[in-house]
Design brief:
53% of the residues lie in helices and 19% in strands. With 510 residues, it is α+β, with helices and mostly antiparallel strands. The strands form three sheets. Strands 1, 2, 5, 6, 7, 9 and 10 form a seven-stranded mixed beta sheet that branches. Strands 12-13-14-15-16 form a five-stranded antiparallel beta sheet, covered by helices on one side. A four-stranded antiparallel beta sheet has the order 4-3-8-11. The model is unreliable at 1-9, 11-35, 364-401 and 505-510 (pLDDT under 50).
Length: 510
């Protein structure tokens, strides 16, 4: 039976290790906080004209489109006409039900160290815009995990909306001032997606709860994390406290590694885990804020967007915890649960360290690819555009080099984690074998019972074999004919009486 249990434990450990490795392999390099990629749209309305500016990260483009645009190909200038054509085809504007006509479009050259691409298409409507409907089908090209955060401005008003694969259309009343809450509801689903597809936040939550504890302990941990990131999310979005993005990202990665290390090397972690969740939750809040801060929301709609986004984050967090806790409770039914928790912590530790190394040492070019700093100064000069696009091409190639270096680093660390997991399993098997060898020369219980009855006549009520201070000990409870209960301890290998304690007066004799 013990061999069978041990075999199941080994298989379970390998399954958890494999799941961790697959999770790392499937994680996206370009976006740790939001699944897929995020684009930023600035839409300005002036009577019959609507200027639609869309900023995309170069690495968010599908491979086929990138090849068609000659991105990252040595000696060739990027050709952005295919992307402009896609934008004109996939984005539709209507005014009072009548389609607005799209112009030819152009590109705003990015700074030399930024590989994001800003596309501009001017739409002309038949009449002054009064009820604008925007249909965004870029997801058909960029994928369902793409998001576009849009800000619409017109004389006397503004609004914002989060376009997603399941929320492709938005309508804005231009003739009258929009309610500050207009479009804010779309940020709720954005908040849900933000945490459910943000593997670093999910890994941090997993590391927090994997060591278990009772329901009250888990409730304190989740409450502390929620309160902390809600505070800093609001402070950052309101520009009260703003920290450098690189510092925030590196600290979030370090928090994952630290909590996982606590799980491995500290015994009593549950008692203070809520404080750890609060301290690191403050930094995770700054990470959450990056999406809203990049959009540059107007003050009149900021509170509603912030509230909806934060509620979405809490809802996504609740979904993740509700899904994880029953699994952790189920694992506690088995003896190998501590080993499974340890292996999961090893995988989380390696991922955290890989992210930390990436964000501290390898983010130089890669972070530029996901930079969403606004770039609205038009530059239509032919020579200037060619020079800027050439710089973008060179920066694009360095971006892909950084990504390949990142993937190689993570692959090496994953291999280390896999080797560590297998080593832990082998060490556990050796320990089990040594334990079996050590128990092989233990005297039979019947022999010890005969000796105990000869020395202390009476009725045996309980027997137990335990290992204390490196040796096996038989504990035997005997009740004599006159009702006196004694607790006897015998060396399981030699049969020598260690102690005989009377329950009534606690006197020891030998």
């Amino acid at each position: 039976m013990k061999r069978c249990n041990h075999a199941r434990a080994s298989k379970a450990i390998r399954a958890f290790l494999l799941a961790g490795v697959i999770g790392i392999a499937l994680s996206r390099d370009a976006s740790a906080h939001l699944g897929g990629h995020t684009g930023y749209a600035s839409i300005s309305i002036d009577r019959q004209q609507v200027r639609y500016s869309l900023q995309l990260s170069a690495i968010s483009l599908p491979a086929a489109l990138a090849d068609q645009m000659k991105l990252g190909q040595p000696g060739l200038l990027p050709d952005l006409k295919p992307l402009i054509a896609v934008m004109g085809k996939q984005i539709k504007l209507t005014n009072d039900g009548r389609a607005c006509e799209a112009g030819p479009g152009f590109v705003i050259p990015p700074p030399p160290d930024v590989t994001s691409i800003t596309l501009v298409v001017d739409f002309v409507c038949a009449d002054p815009v009064s009820e604008l409907t925007i249909r965004d089908d870029m997801f058909d090209v960029l994928g369902d995990d793409h998001h576009t955060l849009a800000r619409v401005e017109w004389p006397g008003g503004s609004a914002q909306f989060a376009f997603q694969a399941d929320a492709r259309e938005a309508k804005f009343q231009i003739a009258k001032a929009e309610s500050p809450a207009r479009g804010a509801g779309s940020f709720f689903s954005l908040g849900v997606a933000h945490i459910l597809t943000g593997y670093d936040h999910l890994l941090f939550l997993l590391a927090l709860v994997v060591r278990g504890g009772n329901i009250w302990s888990l409730l304190k941990i989740i409450t502390a994390f929620t309160l902390a990131h809600s505070i800093t999310l609001a402070l950052a979005v309101l520009n009260v406290v703003v920290l450098p993005e690189r510092l925030v990202e590196a600290t979030i990665a370090l928090s994952i590694a630290y909590v996982a290390a606590e799980n491995l090397f500290m015994r009593h972690t549950v008692s203070h885990r809520w404080a750890v969740a609060f301290v690191f939750g403050l930094m995770h809040g700054f990470g959450f804020s990056s999406v809203l801060r990049e959009l540059g929301l107007p003050k009149e709609g900021l509170a509603w967007c912030l509230l909806n986004f934060n509620l979405g984050v809490e809802a996504g967090q609740a979904i993740a915890v509700i899904a994880a806790v029953p699994l952790l409770i189920w694992l506690r039914r088995y003896r190998w649960e501590p080993r499974a928790a340890a292996v999961m912590s090893v995988v989380v530790l390696v991922v955290g360290l890989a992210l930390f190394v990436d964000r501290v040492f390898l983010t130089g070019a890669a972070s530029a690819s996901s930079s969403a700093l606004p770039c609205f100064a038009a530059c239509r000069g032919r020579g200037g555009r060619r020079n800027a696009l050439g710089s973008a091409g060179r920066s694009e190639r360095s971006t892909w080099s950084a990504i390949m270096l990142k993937r190689t680093t993570i692959a090496v660390l994953v291999a280390v984690a896999a080797g560590g997991g297998w080593w832990a399993t082998a060490a556990d098997q050796q320990k089990q074998a040594e334990s079996s060898t050590a128990r092989s020369d233990i005297l039979p219980l019947e022999q010890i019972l005969q000796r105990a009855k000869a020395q202390y006549p009476g009725r045996v009520t309980e027997t137990e074999l335990e290992r204390k201070r490196g040796r096996y000990v038989y504990e035997i409870d005997v009740v004599s004919d006159d009702g006196v209960k004694k607790e006897l301890k015998y060396d399981a290998k030699t049969g020598e009486l260690i102690s005989a304690k009377v329950e009534d007066n606690d006197d020891d004799d030998k």
